[in-house]
Structures are given as structure tokens and as C-alpha cells.
Amino acid sequence: MEVAESILTPIDTIIIVAYLGAVLVLGYLFSRYVKSSGDFILGGKSLPFWAIGMSVVVSDIGAIDMVSGAGAAYKYGLAQANFDWLGSVPAMVIVAFVFVPFYWRSGVCTLPEFLGRRYGPAVRFFQAVIWLGFLLSMLAVMLWTSAVFLNTVLGMPSQAAIWLTVFVVGIYTILGGLAAVVVTDAMQMVIMFIGAGALLGLSFWEIGGWSNMVQTISAMGPQFEQHFNLLISSQIDTPYPWSGMLMGLGIVLSTAYFSSNQAVIQRVLGARSEWDAKASMILAAFLKLLIPVLVLLPGLAALALYPELENPDEAVPKLVRELLPPGLAGLVFAAFFAALMSSVDSYLNSATTIIISDGYKPATRALSGKDPDDRHCLFLSRALTGLLIVAAGFIAPFIDQFETIYTAMQTLFSLFQGPTLAVLVLGVFWRRANAWGGFAGLLLGVLCSGSLSLVGESLFPSDDPFLYVAFWAFVFSLIVTVVVSLLTPPPSKNQIRGLVYGEVIRDETTQTLLKERIQSD
Amino acid sequence: MEKITLFLEQNLVPLLKPALNWFHLWIDQLPPPVWRFSICAYLVLGTIWAVFLSKDYVLLGSPDQARWRDLRLWIPVLLVPYLLIYLFI
Fold it and tell me: What number is the ipTM of this complex?
């Protein structure tokens, strides 16, 4: 890879080094409070709502989003903002008041764990493998994308960029576990908002404000006339038609993301109380209002300033190189590192949790008949965290050669979203849903997603019909799960005790039993 | 993969196309004000139920009973900016 010339002055470097140092110190401070695997995985259930809310938002918006989100706005316009606006509400409200109290009281640590208890080990294994594959491939991709960005704009050799990130994130995540991840995330969100706000302010200053930007882009030609519309007709060639946004994103993908993403679930389960867990999601929904403003508007500003860019993803790097004065460049790079590290640490911590909770613990119980030693679990969690981030560091430079694997992993993951939400919703709200129904709904739902993806262009009014595919696969999985469950014997009361909404939320006997089980765990 | 796609094009598409087509054609012909109304109705219906949850359920685990901790009160405040966005952008 060609090394570009650095645009950083000594003061920028001091800001970045001070920021990275502060993150490491925080990680060290939190290491004192990690005494058990519960402290490592769930932050000792001590986290306040504001830290979790900020962490949920900043984990969702990574360095890749800062670059590719602005790039998508450059290419498709404001419709990209739906992913943060319609993609947050009402999904986050539903998750806050329905799924969060449910997970909190049922005492599970991961979605595969819940689905495994509800539908059996096959569904748990299926879910754990797909989540793990997704999280690990994303770790490598994040490291590589960031290396490319740092190399292009900063002139930092890509290997150095990768290992700097591996070192800093690895250290504080290994030492402090979830608590360190969440608290550093909160700090990183503040840095990210300040840095992104500075870039936005300078871009708008350069272009002469919002009206000038709208005028400039609108005058570029008819292909840009939809750039300031949030809702676009499906008769126009766009991957974001309004009906797909409502059905695919609003109803299915956003609810699936916030109710089943391990990074989100783990954070809310680390809250110090059920109220903090619920409040964190409401706070996150407020903060998500600002994301399109900070992340997408720079993309539109870049379109007005530099309409000749061949690759839309160059929008933010171009703004950074052209507009930022000394001092601010360091702040924006700190923001970029913040966005990068907050996502990498979340995926790292979540991948470790899935391996421990859905792999190591059940395997130990099955082989030895008793629970694994907690000190052993803590040591293993830390060792795994180190191993995973180092492995991702080694794989990252080769990610270009494994592009097909990454693409396949991403596609496979997107195919799971609709069916996973369907079996989750039925598992939580319908007592009659059984193991056969859940397994068939998930398996056939994924096959349905895959089939619809292959022939989507012939079936749906869009060239990239992933939103419609998600919606119809969700509907199909609901139907299959209901039909197969009704055709096979219902689960016994013992099988679903403490696993359906009515019991977990309202039944006092079940709640007492669950509390005893959680305390004994 | 090409063989699978061809098989699906020949067997699945003719089966599903009539069922999905009428739905998408109907949605496509709706005028823009209906799009806005549908999204806003979804936002309101998807969140407003939370306002009617019991106070005990919402406040469970709260360290005190301060008024601002009643999360139901924040739902309309949250909804307003989202509604303004989808009504006017």
C-alpha cells in the first residue's frame, strides 16, 4: 500500500497520544473491579443508564460508518438518514419496555442462550455460530478499513495502524471487561461528537450554509433531485424506497438489531438496575437523532464542495485533508479512533461472551456434569479477548483476498435477521411455539431469505431489495414457526417455565424462582 | 449458484410474483402524503402504548420516585422531533 503524506502537526499528535493514553488509564483503573467472570462479561451489573445509552450509540456508529455513511449520503442523499431515524424509533422503545425487562428478569447473557433454552440446543448452536462468524469477520474488516483510512489521510503505515489499534483496544478490554468498554465508549462518544461536529461546522462554513448546499447540489442535475428527500418512491432507482424503509427497516431490521444484537443485550444486562437498563435505550434513542446530522451531512457537504469524487467513500477523507486546521485535525482523528475503538471493543467483548456462555460453559456442564470454575472462566475470557484481537490483527491485512468470505458472512448474517426476529417474538410471546417450530422457522426462514435474495430483482421493485427480503422472510418464518408448532406436540410447562413474557414479567412465583437462579449463577 | 438462481427464476418467481406484485403495485401508486402519514402513524402507534404502561412496571429498579425517572413522560418528548422530521423533510 502506498504511504501518503501526513497532515498532522505536532499539536495534533499530542492530542491523539493524550487521548489514547487516557483510554489506557481508564482500562487500568477498571481492572481493579474485575474479580469474577460476571464482572468481566456484565460489568458486575453496576453500569449507569447514561453510560450504557452512550455506549449503545457509539458501538453502533463505528469508524466504517463515519466513512461509508457519509459516502452513502454523497451517493444517495438524505434517505440514508432513515437507518438512524426510522431505524431507532419505535424499535428502541419496544426493546426498552418489552425485551429489556424480559432479558433482565430471565437471567440470560446472550440471545443464543435464550433461544437455546426456549427451542433447544440446535437453535442455540445455529445462532451462536452465525453471531460469532459475523463478529469475528467484522473485527478484521474494521481493523483493515481503519488501516486504509489512516494510511490514506495520515500517512501511517497500515501494519502500524492495525497493531496500534490492537494494542490499545486489547489492553483496556482485557483489563477492564465490559465496564471499561462501556465507560471508555461514553468518553469516546463525547470525543466523536465534538470531532464530527467540528468537521461538519467547517464544511458548512466552507460551503456557505445549508441553503447554499441545497442550491449547489440541486443545480447539479436531475440525478440529484431526490438528494434531500427522506422518503423516495420505489418507482425511482434507489436501494432505499419508502415502502422498503417502512416494512424492511422500520418493522423488521431495526427491531431485530436492537433486540438480538449481542453488543446491545450485553450492555443493558450490565446495568445496575432494570430501570437503568430501560432508561439507557430511551437515552440512546434521543442520541440517535443527532447521528445523521454529524455523520451524513458531511457527505452532502463534500458532494457540494467536491462533486468529482469517483469513490463516494473518499468524501470524509477529502474533507479532513482539505479543511481541517492544526489542532482540529488531531481532534477529528481522535474522534475517528474513538469511533473505531468503540466498535472494535464491543465486537471483541461480545464475541468472547458468546464463546464462554454458549460454548465453553455448556460444553463443560455436558462433559463433567458441573459448572466450570469462575476463576477459570475469568482467565479464559481475558485470554480469549487477547487471542481474538491478535488473530483479527493478523487476518486484517489479508481481508482483501478474503473478500468473498467477508461478503458471504455479511450476506448470511443479513439473511438471519428476519427469521431470528420471528422465532424470538414467537418464543417470547407464544407459549405454544415449540422446538420443532423454532428450528423449522429459523432454517426455512434463512432458506427463504437466501432464495428471495437470489431472485429479488425479479420479484421486488428495487435492484437491491434487501429491505423487502428481510420483511417477507420475517413473515414467512412467522408462518412456518406457527404451522410447524401447531402440527407437533406443545412444549410442557416445565420446558417453558421462566421463558415466556407473561410468566417472566407478571408471575410472582416464576420471578422468585428466576431471582434464585440468577443469584446462584 | 447460477443453476440455483435459474431454478428459482423458473419455479419460485412465477409462484410468488402474482402474490407479491399486487401488494407492491398497490403500495407504489400511493401518493407521497400517504407515505408520510404511514411512517408517522407507525412512529406514533409503535411508541404511544408505552405511555399507558403501569407506573410500577416502568419505575421498577429506580433508586427513587423522582418525576423525571418516569420514562413514560419521555416518550412524547422523544416522539416530537422524529415526527417533525418525517412530516417536514
Answer: 0.93
